[in-house]
């Protein structure tokens, strides 16, 4: 978990570890993990194969002293900032994993929790997105090393979408359903759509949902790649 962040979980904090460190040293076959946290600083995170200059307005990031990191999972570049909930789920797996199955299973659990708060018009779109009224509120990424699964997602709760417009270029790759929409046209937040539940309550509900799905009960860790580009 980045040093400037607010955790909604109690448990073990795994400092400045990369995904690979977590898999090698922390994850055990009988202990899946889940965490929820909110950044208190703005970060830019590239997907595994992204080229920074193609995806990010690097001069703006540098002028604002925004750190640019790279995760080990795929997907596009994202801005993480206050008002987002960052979700991580990791576990071991001894079978060949279909990425679509992982995305669908985890995202359906998240949608079920959101629905319990009265959120309507939710849908799965693209490879791994959750949309609200046809606008994206959650994007997710997957890292599948041998014997392991690391799922990460950012839920747009009550963040400033202008930050995304400011620091990210129009993506070089994007899902068909996005069409040519700009970031501000394509994205929305729960608050913007009228859903103003407390972040702490939503985070705890998400954790409970994953605990129910993964037995034995989850030990909570907070993991995030800290590898600068």
Report on this structure.
The protein has 229 residues and is α+β, with helices and mostly antiparallel strands. Helices cover 27% and strands 26% of the residues. It is built from seven helices and twelve strands. The strands form three sheets. A seven-stranded antiparallel β-sheet has the order 1-3-7-11-10-9-8, with helices on one face. Helix 4 crosses helix 7 (199-213). The longest helix is centred in the middle third of the chain and has 18 residues, at 99-116. The radius of gyration is 16 Å and the shape is globular. Residues 8-26 and 215-229 have low confidence and may be disordered.
Stretches where pLDDT falls below 50 for ≥5 residues?
8-26, 215-229
Radius of gyration: 16 Å
Overall helicity: 25-40%
Q: Main sheet, how many strands, which sense, barrel? A: 7 strands, antiparallel
Strand and helix order: EEHEEHHEEEHEEEEHHHE
The structural class is alpha+beta
Number of strands: 12
Strand order of the largest sheet: 1-3-7-11-10-9-8
Give the overall average pLDDT. Answer: 81
Q: Give the distance, in angstroms, between the N- and C-terminal Cα atoms.
A: 17 Å
Strand content: 25-35%
Helical region count? 7
Shape: globular
